[in-house]
Design a protein that fits this description.
about 260 residues, Muramoyl-pentapeptide Carboxypeptidase, domain 2, elongated, 2 domains, alpha+beta, two-stranded antiparallel sheet
Length: about 260
């Protein structure tokens, strides 16, 4: 009788795969069984992987986690504690550099305007994934007019912004080590060429988990943020004949019914 055996050895040619959903092969008496279950649930909740069969190769698995700024620490998934390359992708269409080196003040001063906190980069990524990518998918490419704002850049824009409330400071801290903005998250201002920005803003309100949205007019940039608190607020900024800007907090139903800048109060 002639028998044939196929032998596969992992090594340089075949990368050893990870054993995904390990809990299927162990029981509650196995060390760290509850932690294993919790880890698998957290990994599945990310929605980043198809773990049917063998799942992705380890290199692809790690690259995907890194691109979404996640890391494995024992049995825990944590947000990345490292600073990414500025030219690394930030979502599907933009880079971190584009969200950091934008706006007239940054261009005029030439300030590096670099985030120093890893969580600031993560906040920019979450903003891109949850708000900017869907907007670009639907309307086309955006033009950023204001992005991340470091404390040094904020000092060059006196009176025009409120760093304690405006989320472009992301997760940065001041000289005393305190958060510049306790709202956390991140924010940008942007325009879309040849689009009515009221329609864009209304689409954001109806279709994304935004945090704050400031609407200034159908031809002006919209300000939008995404953060961990998820307390949506819409503010219509009305400019009076004298040039004074008056912010008006507006309910989402009223905002979605608008055909102009001023809500029906």
């Amino acid at each position: 009788m002639n028998n044939s055996i196929d032998y596969f050895a992992y090594g340089d040619r075949y990368e050893p795969p990870f054993l995904h959903h390990k809990s299927r092969y162990i029981n509650e008496e196995f060390p760290n069984y509850p932690e294993q279950l919790a880890f698998e649930a957290a990994l599945d909740a990310l929605g980043l992987f198809d773990l049917v069969g063998y799942g992705p190769p380890p290199t692809e698995f790690q690259e995907t986690l890194t691109r979404h700024r996640w890391q494995v620490d024992g049995f825990t998934l944590k947000r990345a504690s490292t600073l990414p390359d500025l030219d690394a992708p930030c979502g599907a269409y933009l880079t971190f550099r584009q969200l950091i080196e934008c706006g007239e003040t940054q261009a005029r001063t030439g300030l590096a305007n670099r985030p120093e906190q890893p969580d600031s980069y993560t906040a920019l990524l979450d903003l891109a994934l949850n708000i900017l990518d869907p907007v670009i998918d639907y309307f086309g490419m955006i033009r950023l007019t204001y992005g991340f704002c470091s404390p040094s850049l904020a000092r060059q824009i006196p009176g025009r912004i409120d760093p304690k409330r405006d989320q472009p400071a992301a997760h940065e801290v001041n000289r005393q080590g305190r958060l510049v903005c306790e709202q956390l998250g991140a924010a940008v201002d942007f325009l879309i060429e040849d689009e009515n920005m009221l329609e864009v803003a209304q689409w954001i309100v109806a279709n994304t988990p935004f945090d704050r949205l400031y609407f200034y007019g159908p031809e002006l940039p919209v300000h939008v943020s995404f953060g961990p608190n998820h307390h949506p607020q819409i503010v219509c900024v009305v400019t009076t004949p004298s040039g004074r800007q008056i912010p008006q907090v507006t309910a989402d139903k009223k905002f979605l019914a608008l055909t102009g800048i001023a809500p029906d109060r």
